[in-house]
Design goal:
Elements lengths: L2 E6 L4 H12 L4 E8 L4 H11 L3 E4 L5 H7 L5 E4 H9 L6 E4 L7 H9 L3 E4 L2 H18 L3 E3 L2 H9 L8 E8 L17 H4 L9 H9 L1 H14 L6 E5 L5 E7 L4 E5 L5 H9 L13 H4 L5 E2 L7 H11 L2 H18 L6 H13 L8 H22 L4
C-alpha cells in the first residue's frame, strides 16, 4: 500500500526533488495533496493533473482564481494558511512533506504534528521559530519529525552508529557559498545575481542567499539542537566546499561517522520518506576516485558572523531564534530587491537581536508574535540602512 503524502512547497526546488522521488517509487509513494506559495500556478495545476490529487492549496489567496481556472473538475482549491493546515491534517494523508520556505510553514507543521502525522521537514524555519513547542508536541502525539535537509539527514544516519550518551559532538558541513574566498572589502558591491550563483547546490533564491551569508548554517545549528537534543556548544560547523560529506558525528572514543552522497536532494528526501527502511534506487552514484580529494576548512566567524549570531540566539532563550529568523527573512528580501547591500543582512539581524530581550515561548501564538515583532523591528532598521531608490 502506498504512503500518501501532502506535499507543501510543491513548485520549489525541494518540492521538485520530492516529486522526482515519488515518480521513482510509484508503488511505495503517492501524492494525495499539493500546496505551493502561488507564484507558479501552472506548474501546480500540472502536478495536480499528473497525480490526480483531490485537494490543492496556495498560500497567496490572490492566486486562487488563476489556479481554479487551470484545475480539472472536482479538484478542491484552498487558500491561505487555513488551506495549508487543511491539507496538512487531511485524514487521507499519511505523511506531510513540509518544503515551504520561511515562517509561513510553521502553522501547517504544527497542525500536522498535533494530528499525529509524521512530518518530513525541509522547512527549517519551523524548528527555528518554535523548536521546543514542535518537539514537545511530536512527543505527545507520537508523530515523528524526519529531517530533509541533507545535513540533518546525515546526522540522523550517523547517530544510528552509537548510543546518545556516546556522542561527543555534531559537526555540520557548510559549502562556504560563492564568497568563501572573496575579499570582504568588496562585499558592498555584491549583486543579488552573484549571491544566487551557488557553487554546488541548486536551490531557491532565499536559501541560496542564506548559503552565501552562511545564515543557513546558523539556522541548521538551531534545528539540529532541537532535532537531536544537544546544546549549541556541542554542535560545530566546518567548511567543506565540495558538499560531499553532508555532516559528521564525533563519538567520545575519538571515532568519526560521516555520511557521503552526491549533492542531490533526492537522497535525503528518499531517506526521510523511506525511514525506517532503505529503498534501492537508480539515482547517480558517488565516484570516490573521481573526487580526488575532500577539503575541510575552519569557519571564519569574522567573515561570516551568522553562525555565531544563531548560536548566541539559541543560548539566549526560546524567543531569540524566532526574532533572528524573522529579521533575516526581511533583510534577505530587501537584498534581493536591491534595497540593501549584502553586508546589511548581517547588520540588520545583529541590530534586531540587540533590541530583543528573550522570553519563554509558551504556545504557537507566542512564537508567531515574536516572528511578527522581529519583522517589524527589521523594517525599522531597514528604513535607515536601505539604499535610496
Amino acid at each position: 500500500m502506498s504512503q500518501r503524502l501532502a506535499l507543501l512547497g510543491a513548485t520549489g526546488s525541494i518540492g521538485a526533488s520530492a516529486v522526482e522521488v515519488v515518480r521513482h517509487h510509484p508503488g511505495r509513494l503517492a501524492i494525495a495533496a499539493l500546496a505551493a506559495h502561488g507564484r507558479r500556478v501552472e506548474e501546480l495545476a500540472a502536478l495536480a493533473r499528473e497525480f490526480g490529487v483531490a485537494r490543492v492549496a496556495v498560500f497567496d489567496e490572490a492566486a486562487l482564481p488563476a489556479l481554479r481556472a487551470l484545475l480539472p473538475p472536482g479538484v478542491e482549491a484552498l487558500g491561505g494558511t487555513e488551506g495549508l493546515v487543511a491539507l496538512a491534517t487531511d485524514p487521507g494523508v499519511d505523511r506531510v512533506v513540509a518544503a515551504m520556505v520561511g515562517a509561513a510553514g510553521l502553522e501547517p507543521v504544527h497542525a500536522a504534528l498535533a494530528a499525529g502525522k509524521d512530518v518530513a521537514l525541509a522547512n527549517k524555519e519551523s524548528l527555528v521559530v518554535a523548536g521546543g513547542l514542535l518537539t514537545a508536541l511530536a512527543e505527545r502525539t507520537g508523530a515523528a519529525i524526519l529531517p530533509i535537509d541533507s545535513e540533518h539527514v546525515a546526522l540522523h544516519q550517523a547517530l544510528r552508529a552509537g548510543a546518545p550518551e556516546e556522542v561527543r559532538r555534531l559537526v555540520l558541513t557548510a559549502s562556504g557559498g560563492p564568497f568563501l574566498h572573496r575579499d570582504p572589502a568588496s562585499w558592498e558591491a555584491i549583486r543579488p545575481e552573484e549571491a544566487l550563483r551557488h557553487p554546488t547546490w541548486k536551490m531557491g533564491s532565499k536559501i541560496t542567499v542564506d548559503s552565501a551569508t552562511l545564515m543557513n548554517k546558523g539556522l541548521e545549528l538551531i534545528e539540529a539542537s532541537h532535532l537531536f537534543g544537544l546544546p549549541p556548544e556541542r554542535i560545530d560547523v566546518v567548511v567543506h566546499p565540495q558538499s560531499i560529506v553532508h555532516s559528521l558525528v564525533e563519538y567520545r572514543d575519538g571515532s568519526w561517522i560521516a555520511q557521503l552522497a552526491c549533492n542531490e536532494m533526492v537522497f535525503p528526501i528518499q531517506y526521510a520518506l523511506a525511514h525506517p527502511e532503505r529503498w534501492e534506487n537508480t539515482f547517480p552514484r558517488l565516484d570516490l576516485a573521481a573526487l580526488g580529494q575532500l577539503t575541510f576548512l575552519a569557519l571564519d566567524d569574522r567573515r561570516f558572523p551568522s553562525v555565531r549570531m544563531a548560536r548566541q540566539a539559541l543560548a539566549a532563550g526560546p524567543s531569540a531564534p524566532a526574532v533572528l529568523n524573522a529579521a533575516n527573512e526581511v533583510a534577505v528580501a530587501a537584498f534581493l530587491g536591491g534595497e540593501l547591500p549584502f553586508p546589511g543582512i548581517f547588520d540588520t539581524v545583529a541590530e534586531v537581536l540587540d533590541r530583543h530581550r528573550p522570553e519563554p515561548v509558551a504556545d504557537l501564538a507566542a512564537a508567531l508574535a515574536w516572528d511578527t515583532w522581529g519583522r517589524r523591528q527589521a523594517e525599522e532598521v531597514l528604513a535607515r540602512l536601505a539604499r535610496p531608490r
